[in-house]
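Deliverable D2.4 — example input (structure tokens):
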């Protein structure tokens, strides 16, 4: 049974004793070694919170975890400032300037390559609380992930600082279980970030493409900056799988419908969008042009939302492509629109995976 190999993390598996070996990696125990936690010294002495975090030098890539053997990464927590104290526009975008990457079984190309904030459903380089099953972000900026991530021979997790300055106080914990073996059908976790700063009229935005092999699509995060007037979320989500060409097998009814909302997310009393965050669905971030500050100036309307397909994964056998339309409504009719859309696709598949598109340069990742 799957849960007997260390993959289960729910209430139903809590009573099941296995031969898995629990380990944890922090800045004090870099290799997660048995009996080696908390040995660093502070002003209070040895083993008194001596090294709770690290600093990230500008341009540096740091290996946060490098695990040997078979196992399952079951939870990790990260927190870091969302801006540096240096003056200038670039100081605000830490969460887009840090890049999280994950490698399974000594692969050369990462299976996860996402700006840190977007991975945790904090797009636009802005913090927002998230209360979902696999991703939780708590005050203030405590970012948690509970996606199970199996590996058979090794796991490596890195963070790259593409910010203009050094960043101090990067805190992290990676909790995992070492196992003797994994089921043959245990697939590898993947996540990919994309952005189109100006989508093409009448052409669907691509969230994920060129996935080859068997697997399951388990989630989407969208950071949608509305560049035109009126309602922006009439576009349909489409899933092309297993040989679909012109027409998808799965086609939704609207963007806010896909994330479990309705009628423009509008509060009936105020007519303003109303945020929510649930185990599988959420519209967690909304900022409009009314917000002005001396550094960023006017801001376009920004909308952050997620959908987890954990109870209803999108299963595919040979290939997968995921898109969303940009369609608006002006109170009388539909219209094609052009917006600034970023996304994260989350899925499991057997390796090897196809190469990801090149990650956009740091300044092209910054929000408007």
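Example output (designed residues):
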């Amino acid at each position: 049974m799957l849960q007997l190999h260390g993959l289960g993390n729910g209430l139903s598996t809590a009573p099941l004793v296995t031969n898995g070996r629990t380990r944890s990696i922090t800045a004090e125990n870099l290799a997660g070694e048995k009996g080696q936690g908390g040995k660093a010294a502070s002003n209070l002495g040895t083993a008194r919170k001596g090294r709770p975090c690290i600093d990230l030098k500008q341009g540096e890539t740091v290996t946060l975890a490098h695990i040997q053997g078979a196992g399952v990464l079951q939870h990790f927590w990260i927190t870091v400032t969302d801006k540096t104290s240096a003056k200038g526009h670039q100081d605000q975008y830490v969460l887009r300037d840090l890049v999280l990457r994950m490698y399974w079984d000594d692969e050369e190309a990462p299976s996860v390559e996402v700006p840190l904030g977007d991975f945790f459903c904090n797009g636009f380089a802005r913090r927002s609380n998230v209360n979902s099953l696999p991703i939780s972000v708590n005050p203030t900026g405590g970012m948690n992930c509970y996606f199970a991530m199996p590996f058979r021979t090794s796991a490596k997790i890195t963070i790259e600082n593409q910010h203009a300055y050094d960043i101090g106080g990067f805190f992290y914990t990676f909790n995992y279980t070492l196992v003797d073996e994994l089921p043959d059908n245990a697939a590898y976790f993947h996540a990919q970030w994309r952005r189109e700063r100006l989508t093409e009229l009448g052409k669907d935005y691509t969230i994920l493409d060129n996935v080859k092999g068997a697997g399951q699509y388990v989630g989407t995060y969208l950071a949608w900056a509305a560049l035109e007037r009126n309602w922006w979320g009439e576009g349909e989500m489409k899933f092309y799988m297993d040989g679909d060409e012109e027409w998808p097998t799965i086609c939704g009814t609207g963007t806010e419908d896909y994330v479990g909302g309705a009628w423009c997310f509008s509060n009936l009393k105020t007519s303003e969008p109303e945020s929510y965050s649930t185990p599988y669905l959420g519209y967690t971030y909304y900022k409009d042009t009314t917000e002005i500050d001396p550094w960023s100036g006017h801001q376009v309307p920004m909308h952050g939302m997620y959908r987890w397909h954990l109870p209803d994964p999108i299963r595919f056998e040979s290939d997968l492509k995921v898109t969303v339309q940009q369609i608006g409504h002006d109170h009388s009719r539909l219209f094609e629109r052009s917006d600034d859309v970023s996304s994260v696709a989350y899925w499991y598949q057997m390796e090897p995976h196809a190469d990801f598109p090149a990650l956009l340069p740091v300044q092209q990742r910054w929000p408007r």
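The mean pLDDT is 93.
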